[in-house]
Amino acid sequence: MRALYRRWVLSYWSPYAAMALAGILSAVYFGITKTVWAVTGEFTRLGGHVLEWFGADLSDWSYFGLVGMNGTTWTRTDGWIVWGMFVGALIMVLLNNNFKIRVPRQKRRWIQGFAGGIVAGFGARMALGCNLAAFFTGVPQFSLHAWIFMAATGIGTYLGVKLIGTKWWKGKPALSKGSIDTASQPTKRKVQPILGGIAALLYAALIVCFFATGHPMLGVAALFGAFFGICIERGQICFTSAFRDMWISGRATMTKAILAGMAVSSVATLIILLVNGMDPITKIAAPSTLIGGILFGLGIVMAGGCETGMMYRLMEGQIVFLPVFLGNVIGASFLAYAWDHMGVYDALVASGSKINLFTAWGPAGAIAATLIVLGLVFAIAAYWQKHYRFGTGFKRGESHHVN
Amino acid sequence: MSIDYTLDIRGESCPYPVVYTLETLKGMKQGQLLQVIVDCPSAFRNVPEEVLKHGYTMAQEPEKNGRDMIFYITA
């Protein structure tokens, strides 16, 4: 028992295990609720509720009709996925005694995070999903828009890396000669694990409550949300780094783990589609998917985290992600406004269509194509990791030192 | 063990711990020792991995100090 606790609660997981588990869980969640693991749709609704408090009339905003504004965040499964993720991540952080308010020393990080959050939120909603619905859970639904979004995110993150590499953006670290005194911090009595245990018990009671009071779907969402939060926190899953770090230093660990997770999730989703006789969820593939993906990629690199990564980072106490969260909601709300009031839909979305590989090519064709392309990208990522180096890219033979 | 430089990047989130560490190592002479203090949990993993991949060595095991981590890297 103690060994199990040590292995699964007190140690970080391999990102491969975390992503494979999240992939299977998201397929099962789809089988139960007929919706996918997603978060930015709910962010848009949160923005909508705030606008309503300020007296805005959203009835003629077609984007809110599209995402649905029924009830409150506490009565929606999409709402409980979001809060469950926060709670699940927080419980893990506390059990590990790892919560610490981490304040960036460079003030520019606050503005960068806020700006990046807005761009990412805007782009994600333009494409009708973030790194989840238009990516990690979109590819297993065999929706073509997810593939376009993924490629576009690659382009956007490249632009983002160019931007954050500039001197004025990057800033300077505190570098000093010699050693500095790092007084060892006394290990006081640990309060955080106790708080984490209490939070876990209370949250479990809440889930039981949902089932007992006839809201089984909310219970399922709250439970799966927490599982997703635990997976991404323990695996330190970062979709931003999956792209960004390839451009910076050729690190592809996260890239490969996410690709493997999507492959597992695709197979699991296919089984669920066939066994339950369900239809996959397809989103419109249009110019907006491409442009939204590029903006999303740029925004997440500026912000230092995507819509999911920022959730567990915030729970770790990295408070620079507070303006990122706020920016995400503002960006998503602004897109909802621009959708019809500024002609985004007519210009970039109307020409698109819903294309699904499952319906177009049948189950065998869809899964074969998906696995082959995922495999190819995995091979490229592996090659990249082996040969791409910080500052020099693919060029070889350059010295690692000044002399 | 005499430390030549110290990089205190507590409070910085990804990717800056990796970027700052690799940049600093690049500007150092071979054999010099760099101490890096970080508190971003992702950096606990990606800093040592990238340091090794780029041909530097860890002079000793990372030290956990409360919620911070200290790395000792030979350039």
TrEMBL record, chain A:
GO annotation, cellular component aspect: plasma membrane
Coiled-coil segments: none
InterPro entries, sorted: Sulf_transp_TsuA/YedE (IPR007272), YedE-like (IPR047732)
Cleaved signal peptide residues: none
UniProt entry tagged with the keyword Membrane: yes
Compartment list: Cell inner membrane
Superkingdom of the organism of origin: Bacteria
Keywords: Cell inner membrane, Cell membrane, Membrane, Transmembrane, Transmembrane helix, Transport
Topology in the lipid bilayer: Multi-pass membrane protein
Record field: transmembrane: 12-32, 80-99, 111-136, 142-161, 194-213, 219-237, 257-278, 284-306, 318-339, 359-384
Chief location category: membrane
Annotated family: Belongs to the TsuA/YedE (TC 9.B.102) family.
Stated name of the protein: Selenium metabolism membrane protein YedE/FdhT
Lineage per the UniProt record: Bacteria, Bacillati, Bacillota, Bacilli, Bacillales
From TrEMBL, chain B:
Pfam families in alphabetical order: TusA (PF01206)
Residue ranges constituting the UPF0033 domain according to the UniProt record: 7-31
The keyword Transferase is assigned to this record: yes
GO molecular function, one term: transferase activity
Keywords: Transferase
Keyword Transferase: yes
Assigned protein family: Belongs to the sulfur carrier protein TusA family.
Protein name as catalogued: Sulfurtransferase-like selenium metabolism protein YedF
Organism: Cohnella lubricantis
Lineage of origin: Bacteria, Bacillati, Bacillota, Bacilli, Bacillales
